[in-house]
Specification:
The structure is a single chain. Strands 3-2-1-4-5-6 form a six-stranded parallel sheet, sandwiched between helices. Strands 9-8-7-10-11-12 form a six-stranded parallel sheet, sandwiched between helices. The longest helix has 20 residues, at about 5-20. It has helices spanning about 5-20, 25-40, 65-70, 70-80, 95, 125-140, 155-160, 190-200, 220-230, 255-270, 285-295, 315-325, 335-340, 355, 400-410; strands at about 55-60, 85-90, 105-110, 145-150, 165-170, 180-185, 240-245, 275, 305, 325-330, 345-350, 365-370. About 40% of the residues lie in helices and about 15% in strands. It is of the alpha/beta class and about 400 residues long. It has two domains: about 5-200, Rossmann fold, CATH 3.40.50; about 220-410, Rossmann fold, CATH 3.40.50.2000. The chain contains 15 helices and twelve strands.
């Protein structure tokens, strides 16, 4: 079968499929129509029998920082087992920086994966146009195998098929099944690090499915930047540094700023640690709210409290966390970054299951504090802004518990 003709036909089907989906309002009808459409489109792509170690491998990981870091243990095992294989990661711009300098990859390619941009899509047809355009570019890579690392990512599985990659491995899910040549069982509730390792171990014999720690390559220039920045603030280079990252990727995962403010005040009084708040550019208002609420009764700001929100690159943030005696925060990518550079951490969990997405490391150094609400974890993050206050499970975590855990880790 001619691969170019398959792609063109799939494109026409994709456009009709997207138009039909856009015309339907019922989520149930949309899901059924989508699954039927995916099966129909998938039938156009050949599924030749494949075997042996791949010469050129494409890993498709559309997710954000934490999920990309969860791939690093399996990636390390993959590189050890397949030293001659050219390994390329296809990631979103929001996750690619986590792999900067990773020695286990030969290349990182960028894709604006639909549904992961955290903004409304341009049109119903836009994801399918992007899929076909990206598939044409990927054909130049002449990959002989692809692994789709997100369990439900039918777009990525379709992309691999449209790119003419003959061996396509992913999780055995109804949405992805039509495009895959090999399927691996996805076990609900198993940690994502183990899911990644199990999937990649199916590529060839000798790949270790028992992964080690997550890791991030900290650059010397970023360490130098942190040293200079702390010195410019007049901080004691030998002092105990504690970082708090109050933000999270979804509002329902955030702990109230007033609670973080209480932790700031008490840690300053009890430990004398130098505290720094971290966050992205969009989280400056949040860290400012924590700072404002943390002032003492006489209006004095806690000594040594700094706000670095929006002023660091990912590499500089990693270097900062590497210097810390402790990093605290809600479930978020930056907290997983702190784990990856070896910092002791305290993670606050509410709606997200820590069994699947918790810190991958020594429980004595990577502490999880979970909400006591009976509905936790619901694993739902898409509450509308006007009802988020009704799902305040994070507020059930007490500052006393956070302080107790912090004192134990700080010694």
């Amino acid at each position: 079968m001619n691969a170019g003709r398959v792609t063109d036909t799939g494109g026409r089907v994709a456009q009709a499929f997207a138009a039909a989906l856009a015309a339907r309002r019922s989520p149930t009808v949309r899901q059924r129509l989508r699954l039927a459409g995916l099966r129909g489109v998938g039938a156009f792509y050949p599924k030749p029998a494949q075997g042996g170690a791949p010469r050129s491998l494409l890993l498709i990981r559309p997710d954000h920082l934490g999920d990309v870091l969860f791939l690093t243990p399996a990636l390390q095992a993959l590189r050890r087992a397949l030293p001659q294989t050219r390994i390329t990661l296809l990631a979103g711009p929001w996750g690619a920086e986590a792999m900067c300098g990773n020695p286990d990859l030969d290349a990182v390619e960028i894709c604006q994966f639909p549904g992961f941009e955290r903004r409304p899509k341009a049109s119903a047809l836009a994801p399918y146009r992007l899929l076909l355009a990206t598939a044409r570019k990927l054909r130049a890579g002449r990959y002989d195998a692809a692994a789709v690392l997100r369990f439900d990512h039918w777009w990525g599985a379709w992309l691999a098929a449209a790119a003419g990659i003959p061996r396509r491995i992913g999780y055995d899910r109804p949405e992805t099944r039509p495009f895959l040549t090999e399927r691996v069982a996805y076990r609900p509730g198993r940690h994502e690090v183990l899911q990644n390792a199990t999937l990649l171990a199916a590529l060839a014999s000798g790949i270790d499915a028992a992964p080690g720690p997550t890791h991030f390559a900290v650059a010397g220039a970023d360490r130098a930047w942190v040293t200079a920045r702390l010195a410019a603030q007049g901080l004691d280079p030998a002092g105990k540094l504690v970082a708090i990252h109050p933000g999270a990727g979804a509002a329902v995962k955030q702990w109230p700023p007033a609670c973080w403010a209480e932790v700031v005040r008490r840690l300053t009084e009890i430990t004398g640690a130098q505290l720094v708040l971290t966050g992205g550019p969009s989280e400056r208002a949040l860290t400012a709210a924590v700072t404002a609420a943390a002032t003492f009764g006489d209006g004095v700001r806690p000594q040594g409290l700094l706000d670095f929100a929006g002023s660091t690159t990912l590499g500089q943030l990693a270097a900062l966390y590497e210097r810390c005696a402790l990093v605290l925060g809600s479930d978020s990518g930056p907290l997983h970054l702190a784990v990856a550079v070896g910092a002791p951490t305290i993670h606050l969990y509410g709606p997200v299951p820590a069994a699947k997405f918790g810190p991958w490391g020594d429980p004595a150094r990577q502490v999880v504090l979970a909400s006591s609400w009976s509905c936790v974890p619901c694993d739902r993050l898409d509450w509308a802004p006007d009802v988020v206050a009704q799902h305040a499970c994070m507020a059930a975590i007490l500052p006393d518990d956070v302080i107790r855990a912090a004192r134990a880790l700080l010694g």
